[in-house]
Design goal:
- The complex is a heterodimer.
- Chain A is mainly alpha-helical.
- Chain A has one domain.
- Chain A is built from nine helices and no strands.
- In chain A, helix 3 packs across helix 7, helix 6 packs across helix 8 and helix 8 runs antiparallel to helix 9.
- Chain A starts with a helix and ends with a helix.
- By secondary structure, chain B is an alpha/beta fold.
- Chain B folds into two domains: 223 residues, Rossmann fold; 31 residues.
- Chain B contains nine helices and ten strands.
- In chain B, the strands form two sheets. In chain B, strands 6-7-8-3-9-10 form a six-stranded mixed sheet, with helices on both faces. Chain B has a four-stranded antiparallel sheet with strand order 2-1-4-5, covered by helices on one side.
- In chain B, helix 3 packs across helix 4.
- The chains are: A mainly alpha, B alpha/beta.
- Chain B: GO terms for molecular function: ATP binding; ATP hydrolysis activity.
- Chain B: Pfam families: ABC_tran (PF00005).
- Chain B: Keywords: ATP-binding, Nucleotide-binding, Transport.
């Protein structure tokens, strides 16, 4: 509870005596480039293969001749949109972006760069952390949408190349019983996960004390806590929004 | 002038500062002297507002700093320049950007004015050609000089230096000390230097405050520090072998002078 209280105080400090909108905007764009562009490759690889594997495994389990093969496309789409794209992408980003945020802030803390900002009269939490959270809000949904496309495309490739189903059957499955709200649900989850990853990782990094060893520990804790928070939030979102 | 009165600070039940009071004059090198772990850096952090003292008051030219309204604290902070022990340059920025940073954040100067000021400050510390380098490409002494340039860029009134010559070779350490002294006198800045280097204190220090286990044990001009009777300060000064040898030389010379005088008197 003490840690949670400290976390809430940390969040409240982000909006107290913040920097000018121009500085916040520029910093957010810089952070968005760092978080987004650098993560596109890993998100693309992970989501394409997850879509492919999902397709192959559903095909393996779908032995009933009465169920049309196009169901595979339908199931890949549903699993991708509802769960795999937002959750797995966010977990991957928690590992990549979360550790980077915590490591960067932790290093700034132990090398007194955070103190240097404070001495200048700059709210270091607002200057350093708020743009990261804003950037995550901006970038996570974009990456999740990219992951959705690539995962479904990976399923299409795997299904066609392995002969599990034809391309036409896959597309028929994709287009059947589409619920647009599922996209909204996935995007809401991606924003929630973005906040959790950026805020938890920043908190761990910002309050690092000690030396290089502690920076490493902060990165590890950032990833672990972010992943746990994502999974809990995933369950809560599913309960509340579906 | 900066005045501190009855500063107390405790960390996890350990009393680090115990009622420290004193004045730090403008245009002078005010040295905070003491062994490691005596509370020098904590006192400095209390003065600049990085650590909140449990008790006591801090005033900058008569204006209360600690426990004052945020606006007033911010206003005072904008007149503060600080050189950190590890320089604390922003890794992701070039030297030019580092020095420009406080101007960009805290002033309404135009871009061209800012760049002129950056060039002036870098020239002042002898690094006008290093503007496009990253901090990782600089030596320890160069980093300190960039740190000084960044500290003086917004025309600071108060300069704080946390062990400015630690980790530097003796020649570079002298250069840094000289630079801080020159800047202090040139701009009439109130400078506080945390150090445990007796060379710095004797060569460049004006006023000295000696801390021992969180207490202020001695305060005075650097020229009188060798004449002190405070045992802990003497132990600190003469823990250095060279200083001990110098003291022995002084004693031998004094004894020789005494013998000379006695023999002259006898002859008379």
């Amino acid at each position: 509870m003490k840690t949670f209280g400290a976390f809430l105080l940390f969040l409240s400090s982000l909006v107290k005596r913040g920097e000018s909108p121009r500085i916040l905007f520029n910093r957010t764009i810089d952070e968005a480039i760092l978080i987004g562009i650098d993560s596109v490759f890993i998100v693309a690889v992970v989501s394409t293969f997850i879509g492919a594997v999902t397709c192959v495994q559903i095909s393996y389990n779908l032995t009933n001749a009465l169920i049309p093969r196009s169901t595979i496309g339908f199931m890949v789409r549903e699993m991708t949109i509802l769960e795999l794209a937002p959750t797995i992408t966010s977990i991957v980003l928690a590992g990549k972006v979360g550790s980077s945020i915590a490591g960067g802030l932790g290093t700034m803390r132990i090398t007194e760069q955070v103190d240097a900002l404070e001495v200048m009269g700059i709210n270091s939490a607002s200057y350093l952390v708020l743009p990261k959270i804003m950037a995550a809000f901006l970038v996570f949904p974009m990456l999740v949408i990219t992951a959705m496309f690539l995962s479904i495309f990976g399923g299409y490739l795997a299904g066609s190349l392995s002969g599990a189903l034809s391309g036409q059957e896959y597309i028929t499955g994709l287009r059947s019983d589409f619920i647009a709200y599922n996209i909204t649900f996935a995007l809401i989850k991606s924003v929630v996960f973005a906040f959790l990853v950026a805020a938890i990782s920043s908190y761990q990094g910002y309050f690092t004390e000690g030396g290089a060893l502690e920076v490493g520990r902060a990165s590890t804790k950032a990833v672990t806590n972010s992943v746990i928070a994502i999974l809990i939030a995933d369950f809560v979102c599913a309960q509340l929004l579906l | 002038m900066i005045e501190i009165h009855n500063i107390h600070k405790t960390f996890n039940g350990v009393k680090v500062l115990n009622g420290i009071s004193g004045n730090f004059e403008s245009g002078k090198m005010n040295m905070l002297l003491g062994a490691s772990g005596t509370g020098k850096s904590v006192l400095l952090k209390c003065i600049v507002g990085l650590v909140k003292p449990d008790l006591g008051s801090i005033t900058y030219d008569g204006r209360i700093f600690a426990n004052n309204k945020l606006d007033i604290k911010q206003e005072i902070r904008r007149k503060i320049g600080m050189l950190f022990q590890g320089s604390a340059l922003f890794d992701s920025m070039t030297v030019n950007e580092n020095v420009e940073f406080p101007l960009r954040m805290l002033s309404d100067m135009s871009k061209s004015d800012r760049l002129d000021r950056v060039q002036f400050c870098l020239k002042r510390v002898g690094l006008e050609k290093a503007g496009n380098k990253m901090p990782s490409e600089l030596s320890g002494g160069m980093k300190k000089r960039v740190g000084i340039a960044r500290a003086i860029a917004p025309n600071c009134t108060y300069l704080f230096c946390d062990e400015p010559n630690s980790g530097l070779d003796p020649l570079t350490a002298i250069t840094i000390d000289e630079l801080i002294k020159e800047i202090t006198q040139e701009y009439n800045i109130t400078t506080i230097v945390v150090t445990h280097d007796m060379n710095s204190v004797l060569e460049y220090g004006d006023n000295v405050m000696f801390l021992y286990k969180g207490h202020k044990l001695w305060e005075g001009h650097s020229s009188t520090i060798m004449d002190t009777n405070v045992k802990e300060l003497n132990d600190f000064i003469f823990s250095n072998r060279l200083m001990r040898d110098a003291k022995k030389v002084d004693q031998i010379e004094a004894e020789e002078r005494l013998e000379d005088e006695q023999s002259r008197e006898e002859k008379r």
